[in-house]
Amino acid sequence: MSGAGTAATVLLFLCLLVLSSAHGATPTLLNAKQSAQARGFIFETSHEEIVAKAKKEGKLRVVSSLDPATYKQLAATFKQKYPFLDFTLNAVDGTEAAQRLLLELKAGMGKNWDSIHLSRDFYNEFAEHIKKIDILGMAEHKVLAIPTAMIDPNKRNIVAEASAIQVVVYNKDLISPEKVPNTWEDFLKPELKGRKFLIDIRPHGMVSLVAGLGEAWVKNYASRLKDQEPIWVRGYARALAAMSAGEYALHQQANYQSCVEVAEKHPKKSIVCKVIEPVPVRLIELLGVTISAVNPYAALLWLEFQATPTGQRIIDKYEPLKSSVYGPGSELAKVTEGKKLSIDKWDSFAQIPGWYDMIERAFGLPQAEKLR
User: Fold this and answer.
1) Is residue 219 pLDDT above 80, yes or no?
2) Per-residue three-class SS string for 291-321
3) Could you tell me the residue ranges of all domains in the chain?
4) Which residues contact 216 (CB under 8 A, 6 or more apart)?
5) Are strands 86-91 and 59-64 parallel, antiparallel or unpaired?
């Protein structure tokens, strides 16, 4: 090649490099886009491009499992940030509602929604109806402001916007703090045998402990808890209300947000929420963009917004306290900071129903008692 030809080639390369940089598409981003596209994923190289495409779409229709008060505030704040979007939100809660939504998706009715909530009980089935957008890749390259730990590392297109942790609850008027367990094994001590504490027959936190302590450990632990002859209950609201009334002293595991609500309302502030390690953590509010989404870019902005500090603060305030443990500055991130966590693994969601069954059988399939 002549010197003039070489110079022209170099000049062309530099021009393309400058042009790509002007649009935010650095060589690293372009390589990431190429890699994502080779695997069948959509990948945008700039946030500005996502916003521009969302503006052209002009609408957004989503399904959420959050409390109505929460998504009302989320929607209002989101619309302030993106006023050009005509926003529609529908609530779905419970197993039956999730099954109906899944049947709609299988029947080809997914075009009614741009972003949906994926039930943990049917996670892999729902995931088949989620558009292949490389949310993880875009988060890694700061195109989307979503903490990467919130995103399924295998599927790359689903975000856990919230979480729930389990804690020990006690009434300090009925049991002194030094007698309250400091480890999960402490519940097996002889002095706690014989109707000394409550256990919920639906073992959410115990299932989360499988991730950190293993299936064999949890099964053995559940069996030994049964031998402690606890008081079997169902539902945190009723159990914690009874504890608040002074009828019971200790609960082995309850939702943190449920405990805090009762503790804040107690006239003597006698209800205490104690965090024990490893902290059982459930990933919840799993969201993705549907395959048939009419407004996929608006949906991406919605997923990103909930993961931001502003979105997490709203979830903490109105849900309440169900922010992500991965959300910088979120209340659950503060509560669990520096602690060992036992978090559901994304690739184990299909096993979770079986773990519930395993633990409930180790409990002896008890019936919940009618509380006083």
Assistant:
1) yes
2) CCCCCHHHHHHHHHHHHCHHHHHHHHHHCCC
3) 1-38, 45-161+282-340, 164-280+351-362
4) none
5) parallel
Q: How far apart are CA 145 and CA 62, in angstroms?
A: 20
Q: Which two tokens stand for residue 328?
A: 């910088």
SS3 44: coil
What's the chain's Rg over C-alpha atoms? Answer: 24
- Considering only the top CATH level, what class is 45-161+282-340? alpha beta
CA terminus-to-terminus distance, the chain = 92
DSSP of 149-160, one letter per residue? GGB-TTTSSEEE
Per-residue pLDDT tens for 32-84?
A: 999 999 999 999 999 999 999 999 999 999 998 888 889 899 999 999 999 99
For 289-300, the pLDDT digits (tens) are 999 999 999 999
d(CA 251, CA 370): 16
The model carries a pTM of 0.89
Distance between CA 101 and CA 121 in Å, rounded? 13
Task: Give which of 136, 131, 84 is closest to 111, Cα–Cα.
Answer: 131
274 contacts 167 by C-beta, under 8 angstroms: yes
* Count of CB atoms situated within 10 Å of the CB of 240: 26
Cα–Cα nearest to 310, from 32, 61, 77: 77
**DSSP reduced 3-state for 330:** coil
Q: b/e per residue, 300-314, with b = 16+ CB within 10 A? A: bbbbbbbbbeebbbb
CATH of 164-280+351-362, one of 3.40.50.720, 3.40.190.10, 1.20.120.140, 3.30.1360.120: 3.40.190.10
Q: Do domains 45-161+282-340 and 164-280+351-362 have the same CATH topology?
A: yes
- Judge contact between 334 and 345, C-beta under 8 A: no
Q: Is 14 exposed, middle or buried (0-12, 13-18, 19+ CB in 10 A)?
A: exposed
| 322 touches 163 (CB < 8 A) | yes
Spatial contact of 274 and 168, defined as CB atoms under 8 Å apart: yes
